């Protein structure tokens, strides 16, 4: 039997069926803007506009971008005529490029939807602050305005004249005259450079008065170069991010400045802060860097990498920050410097650095690589302890110690080989601590232990030492050994004391065979000698010979001839 085909459905039947369906709420289509006029052949490299709103090119608002000065007086005979096109201008001396950029920002910020200001390739001369609008985070009018160029080397905003102290190249409206509000939220500046009035990279060069970018909350700078300002970026409040930026040839790369407050949680990712005339980062006494992350950043080629400015601090200088795979390279006067400041709870992972006299301030000494008042509960891991081996980092220039602090408590140096070795090689002690020093653990290649203060009489490298309250001193007969001093230190100096592992230890004149159980020498308790009748193989953990307890401290890890002064010993302090 042949199957019957369904009758054909006509166009009218389809329309009638559609009309009978319930009406759905459809999104209202916004009008599609025509392609911007700036998309000429020379400008097509600019990134696409943000989906958050429309895009305006500053070329369409009258910008020239040829690197030369073009005051409004070139185009307008009177201020009234100029203000019919640019209502925000106040003088015919203002640059056309500035008027175009600021006008595009204002136009988008008043639209209720925000948008993107496009900066096509070119050099734009500006002689005023570029002010971004403030946002209220609870406001339904989403007026976020982004500034996007065509590339860090293609789109250049240039200030040849210094606007003066307290002024900025780009700032949020809230960064003005002590106003206290939430500031500008969620802004983005990307793919361009800002050049200030005085680029330089020689230590001691006088800085200009004006700053670069004045951040508030949730700024995003992405592939932005900032050069030639007092501070490339001035940090305020919280949650701003700098990604693949370059802050160089300023007085300070990034500044946690006076009169502002940072709540922390900032991110610096793959950002180059090297080559500034004072510091890669500086912090005013009333400010501090908290809970921020610096990942694969480059500090240095400046007198200091991170500097706490002089003055009585009101907050922790560095608190609970992460420095991952950062380079403190070619610093003139030190890596982290704040003699009155507190460094608390930070993690430095895979970091390293060096000293270079070419970037040194002559009137300031190189006291140490890290100089702070309080060093507490910080963790140095991986290449961080590339504190230097003296071969290429000018470690011999350090005057006091690698790390200098008034108190050091609870720090961890989990790759402390080079830190310890600098003291063993006579270059600089690992630590110099004038006050409390306790709980500072280190891990080296062959041993581990703790940095402790030497008591009366000091200690010599290779000697057995004993506890003296919170200090150590040379071992005395009848007392238990607490470890072996790895360096020589006078009374009050800090000595790394090995408490586990294999280390060289001073011995009596008699020969020692590998595997011998070693005890303090009867003639000099600070040295070791074979225990009577011992011939144990390395690794044996027994602590008695013929039933008599031995005051053993370790096992010989190799032979040592009679008359030699030391022997490699595997510490076994648990064997008593």
UniProtKB/TrEMBL annotation:
Feature: compositional bias, Low complexity: 45-57
Residues covered by region (Disordered): 40-71, 193-212
Organism: Azospirillum picis
Stretches assigned to coiled coil: none
PROSITE patterns per UniProt: TAT
Biased composition (Basic and acidic residues): 58-71
Name by which UniProt lists this protein: Pectate lyase superfamily protein domain-containing protein
Keywords: Signal
Signal peptide: 1-29
InterPro entries membership: Pectin_lyas_fold, Pectin_lyase_fold/virulence, TAT_signal
């Amino acid at each position: 039997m042949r199957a019957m085909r369904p009758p054909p459905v006509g166009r009218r039947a389809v329309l009638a069926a559609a009309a009978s369906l319930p009406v759905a709420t459809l999104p209202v289509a916004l009008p599609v803007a025509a392609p911007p006029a700036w998309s000429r052949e020379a400008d097509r490299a600019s990134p696409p506009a943000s989906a958050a709103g429309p895009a305006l090119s500053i070329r369409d608002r009258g910008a020239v971008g040829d690197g030369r000065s073009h005051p409004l007086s070139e185009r307008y005979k009177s201020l009234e005529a100029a203000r019919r096109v640019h209502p925000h201008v106040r003088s015919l001396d203002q640059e056309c490029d500035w008027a175009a950029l600021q006008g595009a920002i204002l136009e988008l910020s008043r639209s209720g939807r925000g948008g993107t200001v496009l900066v096509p390739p070119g050099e734009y001369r500006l002689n005023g602050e570029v002010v971004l609008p403030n946002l209220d985070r609870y406001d339904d009018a989403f007026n976020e305005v982004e500034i996007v160029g065509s590339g860090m080397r293609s789109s250049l905003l240039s200030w040849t004249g210094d606007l003066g102290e307290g002024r900025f190249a780009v700032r949020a409206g809230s960064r003005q005259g002590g106003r206290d509000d939430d500031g500008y939220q969620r802004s983005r500046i990307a793919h361009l450079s800002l050049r200030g009035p005085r680029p330089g990279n020689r230590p001691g060069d006088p800085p200009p008065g004006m700053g670069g970018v004045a951040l508030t909350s949730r700024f995003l700078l992405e592939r932005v170069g900032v050069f030639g300002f007092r501070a490339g970026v001035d940090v305020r409040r919280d949650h701003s991010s700098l990604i693949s930026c370059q802050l160089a040839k300023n007085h300070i790369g990034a500044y946690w400045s006076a009169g502002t407050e940072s709540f922390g949680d900032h991110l610096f990712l793959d950002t180059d802060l090297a080559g500034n005339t004072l510091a890669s980062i500086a912090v005013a006494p009333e400010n501090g860097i908290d809970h921020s992350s610096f990942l694969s950043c480059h500090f240095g080629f400046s007198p200091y990498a991170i500097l706490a400015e002089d003055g009585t601090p009101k907050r922790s200088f560095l608190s609970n920050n992460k420095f991952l795979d950062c380079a403190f390279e070619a610093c003139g006067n030190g890596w982290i410097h704040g003699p009155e400041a507190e460094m608390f709870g930070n993690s430095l992972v895979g970091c390293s650095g060096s000293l270079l006299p070419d970037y040194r301030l002559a009137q300031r000494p190189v006291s140490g690589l890290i100089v702070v008042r309080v060093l507490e509960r910080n963790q140095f891991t991986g290449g961080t302890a590339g504190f230097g081996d003296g071969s290429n980092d000018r470690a011999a220039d350090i005057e006091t110690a690698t790390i200098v602090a008034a108190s050091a408590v609870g720090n961890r140096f989990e790759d402390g080989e080079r830190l310890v070795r600098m003291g063993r090689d006579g270059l600089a002690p690992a630590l110099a601590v004038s006050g409390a020093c306790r709980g500072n653990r280190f891990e080296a290649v062959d041993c581990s232990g703790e940095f402790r203060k030497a008591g009366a009489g000091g200690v010599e490298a290779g000697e057995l030492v004993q506890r003296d309250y919170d200090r150590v001193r040379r071992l005395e007969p009848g007392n238990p050994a607490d470890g072996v001093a790895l360096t020589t230190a006078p009374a009050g100096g800090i000595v790394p004391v090995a408490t586990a592992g294999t280390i060289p230890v001073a011995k009596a004149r008699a020969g020692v065979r590998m595997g011998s159980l070693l005890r303090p020498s009867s003639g000099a308790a600070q040295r070791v000698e074979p225990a009577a009748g011992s011939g144990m193989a390395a690794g044996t953990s027994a602590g008695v010979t013929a039933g008599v307890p031995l005051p053993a401290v370790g096992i010989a890890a190799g032979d040592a001839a009679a008359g030699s002064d030391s022997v490699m010993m595997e510490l076994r302090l648990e064997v008593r």
